Amino acid sequence: MTHVLTIARRDLAERASIFVAAAVLAVLPFVITLVPGMPQFPSTDVITTAGGLISVGFTLGLALVLGVTMIGRDLTEKRMSFYFSKPLSAQAIWFGKLGAALVSLALCFTVIFVPSYLAGTTSWHKSWNVELPVAFAIIATAALVMLLFGHFFGTMFRSKSPLVALDVVLIVAAGFALVGIIRPLLTGFAVDLTTRVAFILGGAMLLILLSGGAWQLAKGRADRRQNHIELSRFVWISMAIVLAIGGAFTAWVVHVTPGDLQSLEVSQPDQGTWSFLSGKAKHRMDYNALFAYDLATGEHLRIDGVRSWFSSGFSHDGKMLAYVKLPGQLYLLPLSPGAKPQDLQVTLGRGAQYVFSDDGTRIAVVDSDGIVTAYEIASKRALVSAKMPNTLRTARRLFFASPDVVRLYVESPQYGSIKASDYLVEIYELDVRTRALAHTGSYRTVTKDFGMTVSPDGARALVVERDEKSVSRAFIIDARTAQVIAPVPSADLMHTVLFADGSVGILTKDAAEQWTLTVHPLDGAERRIPIAKIARLYFARELKGGTVVLAGWKDKKSTMFVVDYAHGSVLRSEPDLRSPGFGYQQWYDADPRRVVTDADQPFAAWGDAKSLYAWQPLTGAKRKMLEF
Length: 628
Prior knowledge:
Distance between the termini: 56 Å
Shape: elongated
Strand content: 25-35%
Structural class: alpha+beta
Number of domains: 3
């Protein structure tokens, strides 16, 4: 330790001129206030701003210079042999010089920064908006990085060895390796995990460079080229070990199966047995994974770079899905074992919406600027494109009314308001054959909250409004022209639904928590179907043939109900099962049409014991698929 201090004191004594320069720079922020034109700014603001910039800039620049010269200059000028002629170890030489460099940086920063900070403490906090401990930690870390990298590159280039070319190649390779470690974590939206891994890798790199200086002097002694060889050998072998460990860790993180997910989100298409599963993976912090999962067989396809099914959609027949992969490419994936994603060569911006045609041959996209385009999937060719007017701060929804016609709904404003205000829905149709965009209707109202859903055949729509007193009203309208057909009873959005037969279903609860499903046909008498006494109840799914699945729970106990709304009876209740969704997405999905599934399609349902089941609503058969 005595030898370390001796070397440090010697280096500090040689740097007296640096401290004098720092003292001169400490006066500069005060001098700047005398420059013509500066009096228009508060003098304390000028002093603290200039003082912060000068102190940080000088410290970081000095760190780089000291890193290049603290060992490299002695090797180049052949003065390192002087140290080894004394009873000094390589470790003492290295850490003595390193300690002197760190003390020099700290002193210079303090000399420049403190006067300007004391001249206006309040002004400094206002100008920089960062706490001192945080600022000092950032500056200290940056200075240490500059110092060690300066030493590493200084040793490389001062050696004048052709091995520098190999170092450059290895630096590039290490950069690619770091990207290979970090990028898969980011595509899983694991911000916290990525930050932690980056800190660990950065810390390991600094430790390697810190230890590498002592190693190079111990093995290379006073020989300039040998120092370079030994430093490179130590750094690259150590970095290879660290990167291999990091790569193995990332490979473990991203290698997940549906059984590794927790807090699952599930989405099912209109038809077919495939569904989306997404969620955070167990023991991997905030790493998210998304799968296409077959409820019939348990087969799955991994989808990378997508956080959840909110940016994805199934074709109507459930045999293909589309999803947006970072940074914004639209991909298609056939739902079959071994299928590979297909790049549709379409780039989507934030807020874009897209849907398949019912026959699965085309896809329509509308972006945040209101440009709607229809593509042919087989040829990846744009068939027609048009710009819709009045799309600022709007919600855009669309579907293929026929294979050649895309119908669009532009809802404004995009979100509900605190109080009742004007609300407008504009309806357009884009014809692929005539390449014309036609305005077909408008719906105007004054409301606080608004929801609209379209019947499966695209002929009629149900709109639900709620005023400032939480009183709801609803209308059946023509889905193409927005002409009002008839007013209908309603509840809130979670408890009102447009059935496939054109009737409206409403869930209501009395004071005794007895729920009733009331079916209101447009022509004919209403039907009231008592369901059960339960705390909460929601629409989950409609099946073809006049059947609806309801999801409810009470005291953390779930129950699913299968109701024949066409004939007015409860067919089945299934305890300890709950729906992954409650039909609320019908009001806000890209495709506004109601989802009506085949009666024999397996239904994704969660068990209260944290299990995912494939459940047949009509027969009650269920099969456990996953535990989470």
